[in-house]
Write a structure and sequence with these properties.
The longest helix is centred in the middle third of the chain and has 19 residues, at 79-97. The relative contact order is 0.24. This protein has a single domain, classed as Jelly Rolls (Sandwich), CATH 2.60.120. It is α+β, with helices and mostly antiparallel strands and 214 residues long. It is globular. The chain is 14% helix and 31% strand. The strands form three sheets. Strands 1, 2, 6, 7, 8, 10, 11, 13 and 15 form a nine-stranded antiparallel β-sheet that branches. The chain has a four-stranded antiparallel β-sheet with strand order 5-9-14-12, with no helix packed on it. A two-stranded antiparallel ribbon has the order 3-4. The protein has helices at residues 29-40, 79-97; strands at residues 18-20, 45-46, 49-50, 57-58, 64-65, 67-71, 103-104, 108-114, 125-129, 140-147, 154-156, 159-161, 182-186, 191-193, 196-209.
Length: 214
């Protein structure tokens, strides 16, 4: 008798990203300004890159050039921001991705991209990469990027994503042109930030994690 096999049910197709913009922005302009004040009140370090194998990190300003620090609920008095992310990302996940999520790991990342002050300095940017990899990053399920700056405060520094729709979130119809706009996407999605050419751009990034994929 031939052995019977049972195929598990498939989940519905989900979109490459979820966006909040305009009247449905993720944060209000006053909240964005408050978070810029909170983020810049602490010491910012140079952003590192991982090796996609383990928890090793290295500095390579030709690949990634950004000033950053983690914001924590109690120490930085941003518990309300964590709750906002859990609420809105939770709703988006229930409606679209249905991933098994647990918490935000590694703290919410405050990011500052600067234009170079001399010809020798690197402009703020981040070349193509994925947030998902080895070590701690193997727990990342969904990536969230929130725009804190007003679009008139800088030029360049556009978030771009590699999807089947060739979507550029900072394009004319993208969600990150307005202050407080946000985009959510699976952490394995390749994405990058183009070099900044003028001014300073502030943003947030967070990784919502869950049990390891298997």
């Amino acid at each position: 008798m031939q052995a019977m096999t049972f195929r598990p049910p498939e989940r519905p197709c989900f979109p490459p990203f979820v966006q909040w913009q305009g009247m449905h922005r993720f944060l209000s302009p006053p909240e964005c300004r408050e978070l810029i004040d909170v983020g810049t009140s602490g010491m910012l370090g140079l952003g590192m890159i991982g090796n996609a194998v383990n928890d090793g990190f290295k500095l390579d300003k030709t690949y990634r050039c950004v000033r950053t620090r983690a914001l924590f609920a109690a120490a930085d008095k941003v518990g309300w921001l964590y709750q906002r992310i859990y609420q809105l990302v939770g709703l988006a996940n229930d409606a679209q991705y249905r991933f098994d999520l647990t918490s935000i790991e590694e703290g919410i990342q405050f990011l500052r991209y600067d234009e170079p002050s001399t010809a020798e300095q690197q402009p703020g940017h981040y070349r193509w990469h994925q947030d998902f990899g080895g070590g701690r990053s193997s727990l990342r399920k969904l990536s969230l990027v929130v725009q804190l700056s007003e679009p008139e405060e800088y030029e360049g520094c556009e978030l771009r994503m590699f999807t089947d729709t060739d979507f550029a979130p900072n394009g004319p119809d993208g969600p990150l042109k307005g202050q407080g706009d946000a985009v959510l996407f699976p952490s394995w999605t390749p994405h990058m930030v183009t070099p900044i050419t003028r001014g300073t751009r502030y943003a947030l990034a967070a990784w919502v994690c869950g049990p390891q994929l298997r």
